[in-house]
């Protein structure tokens, strides 16, 4: 018996094995390239920081709408609430935010009338009624959506102390006791910084 045919079969088998090995190496290189691209894209995640400084009904909506929308796009979002903006995160005060009729150029009444007693309450009731009629989300609903979407709602430590707010008075999911230095770190790396 000759060993030549067996040798040919082994050589042919080695050629098939080499082709399979080459195909596997090529596929591994392709997958490593895709993984590197995914990691690079993860590092390219957009960041947005919003500074919320006002605690009126009309100024509570913009930071929460922008934050929840950016989070829906997969952005890393922080909203730093300071001074009157802290009222947005306060469970009780956020339910009673008012709208100022005085000095608001969009109000359809002159400032002289807007300054009369009760005009702020009337303007607030009108806006709340319109919000309800249109099915617009409430502040509480926007906070819930924001937190569920991964938005970090921060409460300024200095303002908490100044206003004598306790962290238990805020909505669940609010990060309390954040200093300006921590907020600035996110702002420095953010693609978008907004002051509301």
UniProtKB/TrEMBL annotation:
Region (Disordered): 1-23
Any coiled-coil regions, as ranges: none
Pfam families the record matches: DrsE_2
InterPro entries (alphabetical): DsrE2-like, DsrEFH-like
UniProt feature, compositional bias: Polar residues: 1-13
Entry-linked SUPFAM superfamilies: DsrEFH-like (SSF75169)
Protein known as: DsrE/DsrF/DrsH-like family protein
């Amino acid at each position: 018996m000759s060993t030549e045919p067996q040798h040919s079969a082994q050589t042919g088998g080695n050629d098939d094995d080499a082709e399979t090995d080459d195909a596997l190496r090529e596929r591994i290189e392709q997958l490593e390239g895709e993984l590197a691209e995914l990691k690079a894209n993860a590092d390219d995640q957009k960041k947005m920081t919003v500074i919320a400084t006002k605690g009126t009904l009309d100024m509570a909506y913009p930071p929460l709408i922008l934050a929840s929308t950016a989070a829906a796009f997969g952005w890393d979002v922080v909203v730093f609430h300071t001074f009157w903006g802290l009222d947005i995160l306060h469970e009780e005060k956020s339910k009673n935010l008012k709208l100022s009729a005085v000095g608001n150029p969009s109000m359809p009444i002159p400032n002289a009338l807007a300054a009369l007693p009760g005009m702020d309450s009337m303007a607030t009731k009108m806006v709340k009624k319109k919000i309800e009629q249109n099915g617009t989300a409430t502040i509480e609903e926007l906070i819930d959506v924001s937190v569920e979407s991964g938005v970090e709602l921060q409460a300024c430590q200095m303002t908490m102390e100044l206003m004598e707010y306790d962290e238990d008075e805020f909505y669940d999911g609010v990060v309390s006791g954040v200093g300006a230095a921590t907020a600035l770190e996110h702002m420095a790396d953010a693609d978008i910084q907004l002051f509301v």
